[in-house]
Amino acid sequence: MLLEAFENSSLSSSVGFALVESQLIYAQMLPNPEIISGDLQSLPLYTIQLGVPQYLHKSLPLDSFIRTSFLFLVSGFLVIKMVSRRVFFVLVFFLHLLVFSQSLDFHVHKKPKIKGPIKTLVVLVMENRSFDHILGWMKSARPEIDGLTGKESNRVSVSDPDSAEVFVSDDALFVDSDPGHSFQAIKEQIFGSENISANPAPMSGFVQQAESMGGGMSKTVMSGFKPAVLPVYTALANEFAVFDRWFASVPSSTQPNRFYVHSATSHGASSNVQKDLIQGFPQKTIFDSLDENDLSFAIYYQNIPTTLFFKNLRKLKHVNRFQSYKTKFKLHAKLGKLPNYAMIEQRYFDVELFPANDDHPSHDVAVGQKFVKEVYETLRSSPQWNETAMLIVYDEHGGFYDHVPTPVSGVPNPDGIIGPDPFYFRFDRLGVRVPAILVSPWIEKGTVIHEPNGPTTYSQFEHSSIPATVKKLFNLKSNFLTKRDAWAGTFDSYFYFRDTPRGDCPERLPEVVTSLRPRGPKEDVSLSEFQAELIQLASQLNGDHIFNTYPDIGKSMTVGQANWYAEDAVARFLEAGRVALRAGANESAIVTMRPSLTSRTAVGDYGQYLQSH
């Protein structure tokens, strides 16, 4: 009952609430509020009409009169039978007018002026491919690129100089299985043994590690794509800039590296950490810095945004930053309404109707090419094009060979945190080199970007270069996020080699006609490690993480089931947040959803996992 919910809450603070699927969600305006639910079944609809107008909580702090007036009206719920409905709504109307007039005095922001040529930076982070695997064979036509010559190789046994030698090839095909890319596997790929003292790193253990997985994986990890097979990347690299010295931030898997993209640290995670996946990672992100500086950002997602692994981004204040790529990205670009910083997230689940476009094995890279082409052409036709840059980068190498030694010295630990056992990684060396392409009308055609020019002798381009560059591009007054982005190379200088933007940038990129996948998506297969992590995130968003079977929720799901589960979880979480925000809940609150599996779902919809509930 609503009355019971209010009687059990603290009425000494303002209260907001929202209706979500016959639940009342309300939040106390406290430093660390919780959003809980109550029953609405017996309540008249008008009792949920009252809410803090959007401009109220955008204009804090308020004077005590407004706070008291608002609390008075909220408390009116408890005595609503003592006044007429008409009088009640007259009071609400006049309070809205009062707050609006006061808000004009409280919160007048002047948007910061960005002095440089780039007003919008768009970032795409693709999945699990090395530089040599994707772009290495471009060297045949572009010798200034540090790519492949055909002479690069690894032996089957690093310790046996007489063992078979496997050379690189340009016949990359559809990869049906996932090469090794755990922390331990990558250490073997880089060093070939437990001895990690070699500097430069020998990059000698890719074949040896792949052989341990069987199934002819060694030839797979040593193969690369012909430039003609990846026409979109070939065109972009020729028309704009390619980095041949961009490294993953951590010699590990997807999530730690994606964390560096946004926060210049993984907060000690060298692999998946289940507890933190539930609670949300606490570190400050570049999104927080942008918000502090009154600059705009948006996350355009397709089925589930990985950025929701960060606790701060789950707050109500950011709920409207999450926008559907399908319905909003092209519209915003067409209207010239793209934000200062746009993160575009891919489709991570490979289903028949909407195949995955993130390039993660075993997904079709042709679909990824079509996705990048779509994003580029959308930006190219936008009225914001002449003030826009786009960065395409891969999170980590995914187990594929690369010949350039990964930096193993001079790399600062970002925040002093040491990784968990058994490795106790100190975050003092980088991961394997990955593809990175920079696109803008301010970039000279055919640019190749090698090592950065500082800020230190040992600085490198790695994922922390993204927040570091954002800070410089937009002149953020906030401090660097960690020691790592303060150290990382930045690419802002490449936008200043011209006085005017180019007028010859292609409006269209080549069509993608080659698909190397012999069949369509397989929806009935089990999840990859990355996809399982996304389902753990989804279960947190919709409240299912409270069950004792977490974190095994995804083990019995198929890809098709997981896709539907993830999309549903995100939709419910964001909609609950928007309703709560409109109703006046504290912007710092985080929605805690009632579990979905017991209340909304028939057994079997998400796999055998549900049968115990």
TrEMBL record:
One of its GO terms (cellular component) is extracellular region. Keywords: Hydrolase, Membrane, Secreted, Signal, Transmembrane, Transmembrane helix. GO terms for biological process: phospholipid catabolic process. The keyword Secreted applies. The chain crosses the membrane at residues 64-80, 87-104. Its main location: secreted. It comes from the Eukaryota. It is found in: Secreted. GO terms for molecular function: phosphoric ester hydrolase activity. Gene3D superfamilies: Alkaline Phosphatase, subunit A. Belongs to the bacterial phospholipase C family. This is Phospholipase C.
